[in-house]
Design a protein that fits this description.
Blueprint: E1 2-3, H1 6-13, E2 104-106, E3 112-124, E4 127-134, E5 142-146, E6 150-157, E7 166-168, E8 192-198, E9 203-208, H2 213-216, E10 222-228, E11 240-249, E12 251-252, E13 255-256, E14 275-278, E15 284-289, E16 292-300, E17 307-310, E18 316-321, E19 324-332, E20 335-337, E21 342-349, E22 353-365, E23 370-384, H3 393-396, H4 402-409, E24 421-429, H5 434-440, H6 457-462, E25 468-474, E26 486-489, E27 492-500, E28 510-514, E29 518-524, E30 527-528, E31 534-535, E32 537-540, E33 545-552, E34 556-562, H7 565-568, E35 573-579
Parallel strand pairs: 2-5, 3-6, 5-10, 11-16, 15-23, 24-27, 26-35
Antiparallel strand pairs: 1-23, 3-4, 6-8, 7-9, 9-10, 11-14, 12-13, 16-21, 17-20, 17-22, 18-19, 18-21, 22-23, 24-25, 27-33, 28-32, 28-34, 29-30, 29-31, 29-33, 34-35
Length: about 575
């Protein structure tokens, strides 16, 4: 570790996010920990923190420190004001049914399936505790659905908290979106609701509980949906594909750190776990033959963590994101994936041996201004057989997706128009302990564009939704969060400009998610985005201005919110009403 002075911190702060293709000055986190190659649009972003493995931390501590630093003076006896909630409190976890691995469930047009929530027993890292699950599976069942199909889901809520199911990224009818208080009342414990899930778009999607996301997501209420394309792509995909759901969990010895009963705790940074999970397990394994290309379907369901995923020197080719294919494939060194996002990437494992799947970033201790590179191994790929002579021509070729290009070309006439709406992302903080308020008031603190882990864990833990209000503000009217009243008609295409204010009391990156519609990221900080793909979730870094082009084709009242669970549960949500034409 090294200490970084104020001048160096200021210089780092001047580094901007830029759209730069690989081979034009992009450095990966593996070669330069001050930069990330990652996704198109994320190149040049300084990576500033990562998880530290603290499973060995004393379970006698009130809170597991994410950084190797002492508790902030003055916080030794401070507890969050939100009360204490523990999943399965009063139940012996060992008496619960053990969670099963996720099963694959193929559904066809008109089929009806059942999804039920329940308490289950999980054992991770030798520690057993109670979590939630859909159909007793961790993650929930993975649905395989043909594009254009509609299937029906009988939902039964078997847990002790209200719940709904949101079909993340799927452009369903508004009544079945699962937004509590907007499209339906939350389903009470023991209650039921029937969802009609229409799947107009091909790609990787997911479903999750949308009530108290800060609890539901880390506690396991999520699963994948894969909508198979109606027309096979011109370029045949690899024969093998793997679905990887990325998440994390915050443990203190043999227990899960408690949640806020009346409001979320960890309301500043969001809840970053100290155990990283792939498909609900702390280690993922895959066996392949040398020279084999594997298609990976990545989904980030973490409450707060953005991952930077790579596989040693194995070359990777980016194929698609949330709602479709990129207009042209892109070679990348790593995948930067924020909460709520999905990416499809082909990876070629050419050399025999063991290849580690890693999350590699750089960590910052905000209290001491200390930086350190961090690498967490999330899985291993065992590559066997003879080494490939060279990558196949099919893998090295960067194919264009003509269908995606034709679809997006219809919207290019809107790219350079002035914004129809502008929003500012900020926060309002009050009544936190005096040491925390004083620390956040220091205007020379380093404010990284993206937080990769919790660099102020004790302060973060005591901050709850009672003292922290995350804000989406209409730049034109000053209206905030659910008071924003944007109103459009079906078929409208609007340009939304989002500015993440770095001068707020505690600036933080935000993965902004729009329900029921799709959008294009057309520019960041005034620079056009050459890597076009239909999205429903996009990172808005601190200090950046991002232009989104919204295709409002689906009538209804749709939520727009940050997908950090603690932020949305602390108010960071608005709605857009789209009238039927």
């Amino acid at each position: 570790m090294r200490s970084v002075g104020r001048t160096a911190v200021f210089i780092l702060l001047l580094v901007n996010v830029s759209f730069t293709a690989e081979g034009q000055g992009v450095d990966s986190a593996r070669r330069d920990s001050s930069k990330l190659a990652g996704m198109p649009g994320m190149e040049g972003m300084p990576g500033m923190s990562a998880v530290t493995d603290t499973l060995e931390a004393s379970s006698g501590r009130t809170i597991v420190p994410m950084m190797k630093s002492p508790m902030m003076p003055g916080l030794e006896n401070v507890l969050p004001a939100s009360g204490d909630f523990r999943v399965g409190a009063g139940r012996d976890a060992r008496t619960l049914r053990k969670a099963l691995p996720s099963a694959e469930l193929r559904v066809h047009d008109g089929d009806t399936v059942t999804l039920s929530t329940s308490l289950v027993q999980r054992t991770i890292g030798g520690h057993t505790f109670a979590t939630y699950a859909f159909n007793g599976e961790a993650p929930g069942p993975r649905f395989l659905v043909p594009q254009g199909a509609t299937f029906y889901v009988r939902f039964r809520n078997g847990i002790d908290q209200p719940a709904t199911i949101h079909w993340h990224g799927v452009r369903v009818k508004n009544a079945f979106d699962g937004s509590p208080g907007v499209t339906q009342p939350a389903v009470a414990p023991g209650g039921t609701f029937v969802y009609a899930v229409h799947c107009p778009d091909a790609g990787v999607f997911w479903y999750h509980d949308h009530v108290r996301e800060d609890i539901a997501l880390p506690m396991g209420l999520y699963g994948n949906i894969y909508v198979e394309p109606r027309t096979p792509p011109a370029n045949a995909p690899p024969a093998r594909q793997e679905f990887l759901i990325l998440s994390d969990l915050l443990l203190d010895g043999d227990s899960v750190i408690s949640y806020g009963r009346d409001a979320p705790n960890f309301a500043l940074m969001g809840r970053f776990g100290n155990v990283l999970l792939v498909n609900g397990e702390p280690r993922w394994h895959l066996a392949v033959a040398a020279g084999e290309v594997v298609r990976l379907m990545l989904t980030n369901v973490a409450s707060a963590r953005t991952f930077n995923i790579s596989f040693g020197d194995a070359p990777m080719k980016l194929i698609a994101s949330d709602l479709g294919a990129y207009t042209r494939e892109v070679m990348v060194r790593s995948i930067v994936i924020a909460p709520g996002e999905r990416y499809i990437v082909d990876v070629m494992f050419g050399k025999p041996g063991d290849v580690a799947m890693v999350n590699e970033v750089q960590t910052v201790d905000h209290f001491f201004g200390v930086f350190a590179a961090n690498v967490d191994t999330m899985g291993h790929v065992a590559v066997s057989g003879r080494a490939a002579v060279a990558p196949s021509a099919a893998f090295t070729a960067l194919h264009e997706d003509t269908a995606a290009a034709r679809d997006i070309d219809r919207y290019r006439k809107f790219f350079d128009r002035p914004p129809d709406e502008e929003m500012v992302l900020t926060t309002s903080i009050h009544d936190l302990p005096i040491p925390v308020m004083q620390f956040m008031s220091v205007d020379t603190l380093f404010r990284p564009p993206l937080e990769w882990s919790d660099g102020m864990s004790d302060m973060n833990w005591v901050a709850t939704g009672k003292e922290v209000r995350w804000i989406i503000r209409d730049a034109k009217t000053g209206a905030e969060n659910m008071a924003i009243a944007w109103h459009y008609k079906q078929g409208d295409v609007i340009k939304l400009r989002i500015y993440n204010d770095p001068s707020s009391k505690h600036p933080m990156n935000h993965p902004i998610h729009l329900h029921g519609e799709r959008f294009l990221v057309v520019a960041r900080d005034g620079k056009p985005n050459p890597y076009l793909v239909w999205k429903d979730t996009a990172i808005i870094p601190v200090g950046s201005t991002v232009d989104l082009l919204l295709d409002l084709s689906n009538p209804g009242t749709w939520m727009l919110h940050c997908h950090i669970g603690e932020h949305v549960e602390s108010g960071m949500m608005a709605t857009i009403k789209v009238d039927a034409s």
